[in-house]
Amino acid sequence: MTQVVKIEGMKCDGCVKAVTEAFKNVAGVKSVQVDLAKKQATVEGNVDSAALAASLKETSYRVVEA
Fold first, then answer.
1. What is the largest CA-CA distance in the chain?
2. Which end of the chain is more exposed for a tag (fewer CB within 10 A), N or C?
3. What pLDDT score was predicted for residue 48?
4. pTM higher than 0.85 for the full model?
């Protein structure tokens, strides 16, 4: 399953790396592509957006609900 999630708080390549690593550590995620310009991530795998949002809990980024 592919899902696109909007992410608030990203400003640089370091942000992209941090979000990518956080999402990769979520069970069920197969791949992650983070787009800084669009402020979103495309996630492949069997995972829900609540789990992705929870993975960013300790960061300055957050998943924005559509």
1. 28
2. C
3. 87
4. yes
